Amino acid sequence: MEALNQHVSARMFGARFVQMVLCLTFFTAMASAMIQRHTFVLQSKSVKKLCKTHNIITVNGQFPGPTLHVSNGDTLIVKVYNKAQYNATIHWHGVRQFRTGWSDGPEFVTQCPIRPGGSYTYRFTVTGQEGTLWWHAHSSWLRATVYGALIIYPRPGTTYPFPRPDREIPIVLGEWWNRNPIDVVNQATRTGAAPNVSDAFTINGQPGSLYPCSSSDTFRASVKAGETNFLRIINAAMNTDLFFSVADHTMTVVAVDASYTKPLKTNVIMLGPGQTTDVLLTADQGIGRYYMAARAYSSGQGVPFDNTTTTAILKYEGSSTRSTPAMPNLPFYNDTQTVTSFADRLRSLASQDHPVFVPQSVDENLLYTVGLGLINCPGQSCGGPNGSRFAASMNNISFVLPTSFSMLQAQQLGTKGVFTTGFPDNPPVQFDYTAQNISRALWSPVKDTRVKVLKYNTTVQVILQGTNIFAGESHPIHLHGYDFYIVGAGFGNYNSQTDPQKFNLIDPPMRNTVNVPVNGWAAIRFVADNPGAWLMHCHLDVHITWGLATVFVVNNGPDELFSLEAPPRDLPLC
Q: Shortest CA distance to 136 belongs to which of 104, 97, 80, 93?
């Protein structure tokens, strides 16, 4: 009887959630929602940084690309013209894309790429989301330079769940190579070696004065003493978790991944690639100049990383331009304790206006291992350890993208041979996932395009279990098409008997990207109420390149309102 009650509770939760979304959609449409139209032109541009000049791919000639400002309930129509020399797509990171999976963007998952000379129009409505998201390319390593902020304001007639700040400052953290990033990844793919680490990090496209030839390439933000500033911080870096801090100032976290949180005061935050954090910062220090700075959190023992520091300047009005900015005390590169403390203190706001709907029971209980591996190179010597090739996997399956058809098209049309079903619910071989010495027999994953099929409105729990194969490290796992609650996390191997007793089912943080702790695990829950083909992958692009990904295929609901929309007429062909 208890099991039956839990099952009914899960179904009722799913129904309530869908009803809430439909109501939100209706009321926002009635409350001055706008249709916003934009044009993106992908094109090459010559840029000089760190004493070197080379061409990068930009949107509208801007780096970073345009910041889009919308309100909850608005519809975005963005026509993308590809005038670059590479295939391209645009992903709207964190946007739920209810029934509009054709606009999600990952190459060969929800669409075929926009070929050079081609175009495609992304159309979607932002529903029930407020805060900071972002957009970026989702084809090869184009997102190294093709990205920008997506700022979602409260619906007209409503406001923030905190005092309105005096000014707003987007802070987009990036990663820079002195080479064409496409050449960097292509070389690594060809040889099987790890790609070269970046040469710099950037804040709003500028590396800052600590790098060579960069004294003038520093972002500056002007603030007024006594005012409260709204910093919208995005980690758009390719392969690096980043610490961020502002000298002598305390930040108050009020949202993560466009989901409001209980106010959290801190001197430092950590963002995995793909994550966003909204903070309030009061200019309560003496008139002067203060560095904002970011540098790597590197959790993998012996894994190469960029150990440089990017800076920007917070300049009080009336301060001298000749004064030396104060520098923040950033944590050491491998300070996992600080990372864990920050993550453990995040809580959803869970207020009357911003409630939470945490699934109290689950229909699908999945355990996915996430980690690295090595593949042998028969008859040749590759660039990885002992002549092997680097790989990565979930449940020992290294994901392979299709090349002639998108997975969403195959789902919609029932086309065979594009992907197979039956992605394992548990690791095919159970072992001590975080042991210091794991048998080499477990290091080689299987390459496949295999998916997990979910019935509509299924309540899902995924335990993401890190492994110590080759090198254990933190993995920022991003799920397209959904937000999820992070109900638990820990180090070592997940224990299905004792760890659920410590889950937070009251006010866990809601995100679209979770940092799985180094040699640890994270538990997420969501309701599969959005039909489509949804990529789940590590947002370290080196890892998704190696295959650390899978796809959830969510079936249509009971009628048209709960089903995927028809594909647009201009959907690119493969």
A: 93
Per DSSP, the three-state class of 481 is coil
Distances (CA, A) of 319 to 137, 146, 214, 222, 225: 39, 34, 22, 10, 10
Cα distances from 24 to residues 28, 122, 164, 352, in angstroms, run 6, 22, 23, 15
Answer whether 136's CB lies under 8 Å from 146's CB: yes
**CA 274 to CA 172: how far, in whole Å?**
11
Q: What distance in Å separates the CA atoms of residue 136 and residue 314, rounded to the nearest whole number? A: 26
Cα–chain center distance at 485: 15
Q: Tell me which residue of 308, 340, 328, 74 sits closest to 214, measured CA to CA.
A: 308
Phi/psi for 425 (5° steps) reads -75, -20
Helix, strand, or coil here: 556? coil
Return left, alpha or beta for 261; rule: phi > 0 is left, psi -120 to 50 is alpha, else beta. beta
Main-chain dihedrals φ then ψ at residue 410, nearest 5 degrees: -60, -40
Whether residue 6 has pLDDT greater than 50:
no
- In total, the chain counts a number of residues equal to 574
| Structure-token pair, residue 143 | 């997102």
Q: Are 492 and 464 in contact (CB under 8 A)?
A: no
pLDDT confidence tier of residue 379, bands split at 50, 70 and 90? confident
Helices (H), 65-208: 181-191
**Which element (helix H / strand E) includes 541?**
helix 541-546
CA 564, CA 557: separation in Å to the nearest integer? 9
The pTM of the full predicted model, rounded to 2 decimals, is: 0.94
Positive or negative: CA dihedral 300, 306, 309, 312 = negative
Q: Which H or E run includes 15?
A: helix 2-30
Question: 22 pLDDT exceeds 60?
Answer: no
- C-beta of residue 480 within 8 angstroms of C-beta of residue 535: yes
d(CA 156, CA 152): 12
Cβ–Cβ < 8 Å for 203, 173? yes
In the structure encoding, which two tokens stand for residue 233, read together?
A: 């911080």
Q: What are the tens digits of pLDDT across the range 413-465?
A: 999 999 999 999 999 999 999 999 999 899 999 999 999 999 999 999 999 99
pLDDT digits (tens, 9 = 90+) for 396-405: 999 999 999 9
Give mean pLDDT, residues 381-397. Answer: 96
- Select from 135, 137, 148, 140 the least CA-distant residue to 182: 140
**In contact, 251 and 279? CB cutoff 8 Å:** yes
Q: Which helix (H) or strand (E) holds 337?
A: helix 336-345
Q: Which of 282, 548, 528, 540 is nearest to 395 (CA)?
A: 548
Q: Which helix (H) or strand (E) holds 515?
A: strand 513-516
User: Could you tell me the two tokens for 158?
Assistant: 């409503």
